[in-house]
Amino acid sequence: MNKNGLVLWEGPSEINGEPVVAIATGFERSTTNDKIGKDTIQIWYLHRDIPPNVASREGQDEAVCGDCMHRPSTGGACYVITFQAPLAVWKAYKRGSYQQWDGTGMPFLNRKVRFGAYGDPAAAPKDTFKGIRKVSKRHYGYTHQWKNPDMVHLRDWCMASADSPPDYLRARSKGWRTFRVRTEDEPLQPNERMCPASEESPVYETMDCGKCGGCDGLTRGAKRPGYAIIVHGIKAQRFNKQQEQANEIQDPNNTSHQRQRDVQLRNGMQL
Fold first, then answer.
1. Which terminal CB of the chain, N or C, has fewer other CB atoms within 10 Å?
2. What is the pLDDT of residues 25-47, one digit of tens each?
3. Which strand (E) or helix (H) includes residue 256?
């Protein structure tokens, strides 16, 4: 058996009812992702019957991703390369390499836990990970399902994934803390801070998500700030395009020139 992972839960997705599985990895071998940080257990939400790269490509990933705008099948800018780690985890699961979790907190005692290496924690039932959170040293997670009133329980331990300033304001009005993806020309919002583990952060070289642990929802209070990170490279191009399309839907008379003017005004630039 592969001692690096455990099957935590299997069943119908709370998002759309299709079969999904939640798998934890990192018990023996740590991630090589410097931003995540070493000694972090990661939880993956995968469609039980469809390889994640296929599900992602063909739009069959709703069971674990919901209506996230970053889904590749909708032209999104998701950073997860599904044919790499997610596919490897799914294949190991299908081979029967992972043991079933016995429900105790011992494997997670004093460990850092990332609820969502891929997929949305909303896919699993409400109390699936309650015991894990209680015994972990630090935990953090993100959800795009914050707009769904049936998922309000996630607010206690997950950040609302916000994709625009209006998203940020709406989530905050509902009592969520937020983690927002933004473009380089978008300013930080009130009570929003730069992600300490982002490339733009002055402490980037020495900080990672495991050390920070700030994205734990309301676990340590609702008044704490949200965080934002700038999207870069080809992902930025896709994200900017989606933002433009969203703006056009909201205001079809808002031309490209006017949008540029709006950005300049928000940033306090002279015209």
1. C
2. 999 998 878 888 888 999 999 99
3. helix 256-266
pLDDT in tens, 240-268: 777 776 655 555 454 444 444 443 434 44
The 3-state DSSP class for residue 164 equals coil
Q: What number of helices (H) and strands (E) belong to the chain?
A: 8, 10
- Who contacts 44 (Cβ-Cβ below 8 Å, separation ≥6)? 22, 23, 24, 25, 86, 89, 117, 118, 119
Model confidence over 170-219: pLDDT tens digits? 999 999 999 999 988 899 999 999 999 998 999 988 999 999 999 999 99
Whole-prediction pTM value? 0.87
Q: Structural domain boundaries of the chain?
A: 5-233
Q: How far apart are CA 19 and CA 262, in angstroms?
A: 44
What are φ and ψ of residue 35, in 5° steps? -70, -35
The predicted pLDDT at position 260 comes to 43
CB distance 5 to 92 below 8 Å? yes
Which of 133-163 are b and which e, b meaning 16 or more Cβ less than 10 Å from the residue's Cβ?
bebbebbbbbbbbbeeeebeebbebbbbbbb
